[in-house]
């Protein structure tokens, strides 16, 4: 009899979901595949105690399927906390589609994905995220009602990016007040990493207030376009994280606060739109605290998007959307004060408040 000895990596593959470090008591993970359209997708439903899970669909050319799984697990968990701390009656979910949206995304693929969403019967609502457009959500809507962020012409709330950026802007101003004593961004040097839909709008808001904005992105064409449009500088150095500035705003993919970058940071504030900015919450949150860098938790300040699309479910209008998003400023200051009073990290303080709300609802059920 031959006994196979498994390596650590093989053991990981024996437990593709429950063995992931990012698996955090998710209620459901759905793997979706369709040969005809080439669709490969994963839907993660983290928690539905407060309501149906809502979270956008991200289409990205992941290096491995393991990377895609890890991303959807971390993102869906973040959506749970985002909804809870914002006071919305929603749970957390997310979806990823594996592949380059410029190469494989078609209306048929989006409709097939929508059919998978529909099989969950309203437990998960999808929306727009990286690699997606409002028009893609309109296509998904053709086959399922469980989608938000559709075009305003079709009765939806439209592109959530401007509202997301406004919430990040509010959170950034709150963090600036906590770090500097006032929330004026005039003259502050802000490094914006990633100038997609949300990043560009954040550049507009901050530059119009008089901030000295420096932008960074892998897309040279976008850099030139945004620089010319708003009169901001393009970063041409070799290491953005070592650059002297007042505020670092990560607005691309996550985990940019990690072992390689955290010691280089010379800023006083980290406040951006990217999800899961801390590569490891338990390690990098305390390190930011030790360096006396004010960190605005991403799932708190980038909640404008979910507020925007939630309006389609609850039926409230633009004024309420903007009012709820503006309140991110007050919530962020509350988080900072709670963290200071309890000598904990801002990230842990924010998670604590979110978990308290979820636990309270669970105890009533």
Mind explaining what this structure looks like?
- It is a single chain.
- The protein is of the alpha/beta class.
- It is 45% helix and 14% strand.
- It has 14 helices and 12 strands.
- The longest helix has 22 residues, at 65-86.
- It starts with 7 loop residues before the first helix and ends with a helix.
Short description:
Helix content is 45%, strand content 14%. With 365 residues, it is α/β, with parallel strands linked by helices. Strands 1, 2, 3, 4, 5 and 6 form a six-stranded mixed β-sheet that branches. Strands 9-8-7-10-11-12 form a six-stranded parallel β-sheet, with helices on both faces.
Q: Which overall shape is indicated by the principal axes computed on the Cα atoms? A: globular
**Average pLDDT taken over every residue:** 93
Number of helices: 14
- The number of distinct β-strands equals 12
Question: In angstroms, what is the radius of gyration?
Answer: 20 Å
Largest sheet: 6 strands, mixed
Q: Kindly, what is the distance between the CA atoms of the first and last residues, rounded to a whole number of angstroms? A: 52 Å
Low-confidence stretches: 1-8
Give helix and strand order, one letter per element, not per position: HEEEEHEHHEHHEHEHEEEHEHHHHH
The chain-level structural class is alpha/beta
Helical coverage, percent range: 40-55%
